[in-house]
């Protein structure tokens, strides 16, 4: 009965969302507080329904109820408990339910933030959220119903795709969905502003924490996904410019641009139309990502639902929301009151440059991703736009972005002082040069550009530190005062600095990849192979049999050049019995920030094929992203958003110089 | 029935939750003026700023500028707010319309869609509960499912395979039975009984033909237990199908002689003997099977049969012991399918298998 009650709750949520789409918007037009309040009630009710439905499905997974088709297709009674639970969203139907759950969670949060949002903005945004929920609930119910039943029920399920039987599944999709769906809030606010025909700094302040949250979650989701691919797929890479990865990168780029343009709007009431456009764009791109993954257009690890019918449905949703959003934009945007002009050398000028570069990067990735698909559809030719294209184009755009980043941070609002900014950055610049020279001196091999990359990473990271220290420390200011001043800086300033520091750290990690090594050898037990500064010895290969798979484990001993031991690592090749599907489990040994990565290949006549990688400082890539996300969350808690009133952040700086 | 009560309660609760603001906001003292929400919002902002400033969380200069800005917005919002009492006639009509919309929409949409997609009659079936059900209460299919699930987890349980095989046979899944016996054989080792059981399953899976694989199992069993009746029966049958009618007759006769008078399989042996002697043609086999074969023959005689059907007819006649008819059918098949080399090759194999010679 719980299952059917869960199914009914889902249908009920759809009905409530229809009411939520219509009533609050009507209320906002007629200025009727009661009708607007009904929108909030609807949002909370639909959240309760979808949450109940999700719990019902999870319960069915936990007790292995094989009368549900979805459970049969993706679970197995012998699966470890954690994968029974994560299996709920390790498939198309369940992940769509999670998607809708996150959507209603956000709507409920908007409904609850009565104190920080103007009533009409909130009502209209809830209406738009309701419309999105209606579309996706219909999609779930009609084309991918997770509660579809089987009778008679089989006694065993077909098990979850082995690649997904990993703790990564518990982390990556939920984070990514929170990010994707969080962008729907920015979209809803943008449409609400267009419906109301009013947009101002209050709007920007209302939108900013939501965008920050979505962006931070998206950052975490993407980087955790990349780490998962790195250790699970066994190719030693962490980013493949796979269309699905690009599909998540595009909304991230757009959201990053949005994040910065909202700042300009909040401070200067400028870039209004552009900000609205970015908000629509960011969510549209996350819908495009959903479409690419679930329509069967692509073949990849992520494309777990390849059903043209579903593709057509999502394409419909896509057309309605992107088309509708842009049409509303074209109709109403000219009515918005424009903000003031500004000088090119100023914080806002720098942020405009940032926006231009991010949008260009986003467009480049979009073209690189969709062009091969369009070409295949139009003339049937299969071309592959691979890493060389993306590395070159996105790299070329990222270079000026990274170089200008510390400068932009040093510029004041309205009228910046380029020379002053450069002077304040002298220390960072000098340290970066030292880093480049030191790298040249100590590192052997690797392309010439890599030490430059190290320099840029160092420049960005140190620039972020200078941002905080420059505002706190001044000539003749005692240390104690400076420290308390630093602590007194607004959280958004700290968050900004942390995020930018993270960018620098990630760039350092990427640059260090140039010194990595890769070897492919055939090894027998007792054989040795060198991997970077270490020597790996294959000690033995042991077969093991666990709950739902068997595996051959290669045990490697690692020794340093001087003969001391650096530990052991286990790399294995698994065979999942139910699906008869092999997977590779890379053996990874972390030494400091570097990793030794071993992946087993096919058994050959003379032994077993082994891929050995040495990845110096590879962890910096993901540590940087953790800094970025932490910065986002930090800035989100800024008092200004809670109070909903502006604080002149430049005040302490001016005092310092006075 | 319970489930519909649950659905009704859920629908009612949700409808109440959605309509709640209508009751609450109307009951607010003095009602709320249009645009009041915005005014209240900015007022609460100003209060918040004052509180934060009082606690020293923001500096006085910042608080002042924040307050100025909020106040400016408050004034703008007040100017924009249209006047008009809330309890007016249009407002009441609007609220009635909204509640009517919600109350009709929620049950209509949810019951309609649930009716289309739901399965209210299906109970939940958690695996644990299904596995603890008293085995006597289980249907045969469920019992088989349980054993299959057990074997999927423990594929090395030979006893399980041996238990499952005869059940398969009874369900008519002869091929599955044969492979289950095969698993049992490889896990538990060959015994004459297992070998013959496997051979029997193979024969049934092959529409009564003793294949080379079955023959090999029978011979191995007989080498260990020369007196085993079932194995002798199938060897005699194999001889018959190979065209060694004399040998087959002798073997069946010997089997019949050695049998106890009340052996349950004795009538079967007698029937084979009668068929071989030609004394009881047509009466030995089940009339239903015979009728089926005759209707197949009639259909094929009308023309348009494919290789599969012709092969089935030839095989049926051969297995029924009607060698003349089998040969006739083979000849007709060759005429009908002359244009299809693959079919001819197949018929050739069939002819060799049953040692049929065509009469021209």
Work out the radius of gyration of chain B: 42 Å
| Low-confidence sequence ranges of chain B | 27-34
- The overall average pLDDT of chain B, rounded, is 79
Share of residues in strands of chain B: under 5%
* SSE string of chain A: HHHHHHHHHHHHHHHHHHEEEEEEEEEHHH
Total of helices of chain A = 21
Class from secondary-structure proportions of chain A: alpha+beta
Describe the main β-sheet of chain A briefly.
5 strands, antiparallel
Number of domains of chain A: 4
The biggest beta sheet of chain B reads:
none
CA gyration radius of chain A, whole angstroms: 26 Å
Name the assembly state: heterodimer
Strand content of chain A: 5-15%
Instruction: Report helical residue fraction of chain B.
Output: over 70%
Number of strands of chain B: 0
Q: Based on CA inertia axes, which overall geometry of chain B fits?
A: elongated
Termini separation of chain A? 72 Å
Please provide the ordered H/E string of secondary-structure elements of chain B: HHHHHHHHHHHHHHHHH
Provide mean pLDDT of chain A, rounded: 87
Record keyword descriptors for this entry:
heterodimer, A: 658 residues, alpha+beta, five-stranded antiparallel beta sheet, 21 helices, 9 strands, globular, B: mainly alpha, Serine Threonine Protein Phosphatase 5, Tetratricopeptide repeat, 3 domains, 0% strand, elongated
Task: Provide a descriptive summary of the structure in words.
The complex is a heterodimer of chains A (658) and B (360). With 658 residues, chain A is α+β, with helices and mostly antiparallel strands. Chain A has helices at residues 2-30, 33-62, 69-74, 81-86, 92-112, 119-143, 168-196, 201-232, 243-268, 272-294, 308-332, 347-379, 387-410, 418-424, 426-442, 449-472, 479-488, 491-512, 619-636, 639-643, 651-657, and strands at 517-523, 528-531, 534-545, 549-560, 565-576, 581-585, 587-591, 594-604, 607-615. The model of chain A is unreliable at 644-658 (pLDDT under 50). By secondary structure, chain B is an all-alpha fold. Chain B has helices spanning 2-27, 36-54, 60-80, 89-117, 127-131, 140-153, 158-170, 174-188, 192-205, 212-224, 229-241, 245-258, 266-277, 287-301, 307-320, 323-336, 341-354. The longest helix of chain B is centred in the N-terminal third of the chain and has 29 residues, at 89-117. The model of chain B is unreliable at 27-34 (pLDDT under 50). The interface between A and B is large, with 73 and 78 residues.
